[in-house]
Amino acid sequence: MSQFLDSLKDRRSFYALGRDVKLSEEEITELIKDAVKNSPTAFNAQSPRAVILFNDAHEKLWNIVEEALKPLTPAEAFPNTQAKIAGFRNALGTVLFFKETDTVKHLQEQFALYADNFPDWAEQSNGIATANVWTALNAAGLGANLQHYNPVIDDAVAKEWDIPANWQLRSQLVFGSKEGDAGEKEYLADDERFRVYR
């Protein structure tokens, strides 16, 4: 149990990422698949989807983000945006996480009593899968950080990688070698977050 908790404690947002990774792309792909497959989902819906981008595809994603943000960002702020995106582009790869919406709709129709809950449960399932992949990557020695450029990039991403219409983009997990420190994490006081009753 302590090994699992240590893995959770060790996971951090690493923004200085590179490509000096010992694992092969195949090993990283299998690690990501295993983490997603073994993440729980309500009603065993298995609604999380993942698209793994390496090399040119990874760089293309961050070119898409930069192009999408340019008209939305004040000119004086855009150099900072470009620098941030360049940091993501320097990483080894990105996992795009999606929610598969047809399954959610089917469950809403099948179990009307819980219909309002299924979209929330699907988001929770996606969050669990994302956190599990992030923790697994960290345990394998890779750093990562989570981004949310959806829905600004949704259409361009769908077009570039032929994403099905029923896959809704939820987040982008950038990963690579750890080229800097993550910094200390600050925690709220326990009495602000937890209650125990007996």
From TrEMBL:
Stored InterPro entries: Frm2/Hbn1, Nitroreductase, Nitroreductase-like
All copies of domain Nitroreductase, residue ranges: 9-176
CDD domains to which the protein is assigned, alphabetical: Frm2-like
Organism, scientific name: Enterococcus viikkiensis
Protein name according to UniProt: Nitroreductase family protein
